Amino acid sequence: MKINRRLLLMTSLVANAITATTPTTRPNVVVIVADDMGHHDLSSMGSHIQTPNIDRLSTEGVKLDNYYVQPVCSPTRGSLMTGRYPFRLGLQHENLVGYRPAGLPLEEETMADLFRECGYKTSMIGKWQLGFFKESYLPWNRGFDEFFGQLLGGQDYYSRKKCLKLRNHGNLCGYDLRTHEGPVRDTSAKYQPFLYADKAKEKFAAHNKTQPLYMYLAFQSVHRPLQAPAMYTRLYDGQGLTGPQKIFAGMVTALDAAIGDVVDGLKESGLWNNTILFFSNDNGREGGGRHRGGKNDFYQGGISGTGFFAGPVIAQSKQGTRLKHLTHISDVLPTVLAAGQCKNTPEKPIDGFNLWPFMNGQDNEDVKKRREIPMQINPHLVLHGHDPRNFNTKWDTRMQGVYIKGDMKLIAGSYSILRRREHKSRTVFLYNVTEDSQENYDLSDQRRSLAESLMDKLADLLPEAKYPWHPTPDPKSDPDLNGGFWGPFQEEDLPDKNDTQVTDEDYDTVYPDDEDEPFDQ
Ligand SMILES: [Ca+2]
User: Fold this and answer.
1) CATH class of the region 25-358
2) Residue ranges of the alpha helices (H) in 22-137?
């Protein structure tokens, strides 16, 4: 008996020793996000900007041809992290700005929670922008084992400094770089995408291969401020570009080089052969690109995504292919969890569709394809007048709602996350974005019953929408009160507030159409 027990113990020790030294067969998952990069800012999309690394990854991987993101950072990132539409998260109204005590609600599980739960090491590098006003909202309390990066967006690319104007309180300025262990005062002046790429390479080299790795690498590039090293802007001399255009192009090429470094790091560390990589922009280019509209807008220029999956984990037969059907940023969560063989699902229902069968070669007629996207429901953004056409619908035509079905896109109310009118009386527009990618022809008269049915869909979903979390700014966010760094500024036991639930009438008086609320990104 004694011998048997000893034998058993020895057998289990040997088994453990094997487990502890055998590399995992489950794939590493690397999710890369570029900030404010337009749909056409890659060479492979016809741009003059040189992006050889991103282009190679996308042409060798599985490219999403009909892919949508949200028009600004926080809604896209919230949807990426939860697999749910931003209107369910209360994140559909503007961005989470540093002085506002709001975030991704704590009852939402994140991609990192789910990967950690199924045995992954979870690591985040880069830009969070999903709330930091209390400790509990910070990335390392939202499922990430470790963090290196910034809590807000739009900081200086060399000094790590971020300033925000707050009405009646002047300019709030502070450093914004930290790890899960505390603030980091970095004086290296290393151009930010390379700071993040180098940190990612460090993490890859140190990674224990017995455990699969999930890394979320969210670059701030190519968001404002316009800054790029001279060696990248000089590439665009003599092409007739303005100074700012040259800097922007240099920023994109530098980001591309940093992504090349990240892939080199994965290869040098022996992780690449067992990795699936996803790349996406978070919203359209600021100021617009080749489509109508740009960042902030629900026109194609704001929400056309550039997204692809890459890496040797994708079945050989699927490499170099394209997915032509409709996809949305919320699809990434179920896709990468399926790739990671994670069977656990979030408690709340997700909106995303699993795309992994299109990459492992198991797609068949039973695999459900997305046909529509309820892009936006914002009960806090209501224009002054109704559309005069007496549509037969339950939807309030003043309220912002955006619905994509097949080739058709309905926009009701403001077309932007800011308060914007397209037309002095009409508030409802319908476009065929395949035939009319510039959205020049409003079809809401010709195809009135379709417009009505899409508005009815929005009206049916309205009870499921969370009222936007958009509280009054808190001057205690001032980094001067927090050791010179942006960081948590409220005690945990203080109740979370959402004190801006104003009536339409109040709202109209305070903010006329086409006038911004105080807003800073
Ligand atoms: Ca952005």
Assistant:
1) alpha beta
2) 52-60, 73-82, 86-89, 111-117
